[in-house]
Amino acid sequence: MTDTNAAPTLVVGLGCQRGCPVSTLRALLDQALQAHQIPLQQVKGLASIDLKRDEPALIELAAQLGLPMVFFSSEQLTPYEPLLSHHSQIAFERTGCYGVAESAALALAEQLAKAPVKLLIRRQKYAQATLALAGAA
Hints:
With about 140 residues, this protein is α/β, with parallel strands linked by helices. The protein has helices at about 20-35, 55-65, 75, 90-95, 100-115; strands spanning about 10-15, 45-50, 70, 115-125, 130-135.
């Protein structure tokens, strides 16, 4: 019998342009998980920046997947800058954070795992969205 608690705590960080369709986010998520052979059931939550708190596609995706959607301020995401694979000046100008998807994934993974975390899928960009996946190191 396998111990279900042994499954890693994996979370997805998402960034998107205003008005991004939920289908775009879902396609990006499915594509990334498939490429890395990660079952959707292992994902414990979704995260983004608080500026996207009212973004319909993020809220809808979380509802479709039955996962919590957690939002962080740019101040909460700043400590993760050294861990980012990509520093986006445009993201910084718009949000005060150099990488929303990666930072948010790391922040939520650390909150849930209560342990050191790392990026397992670095920033993936697709149409109007970015995605990253983080988990316990």
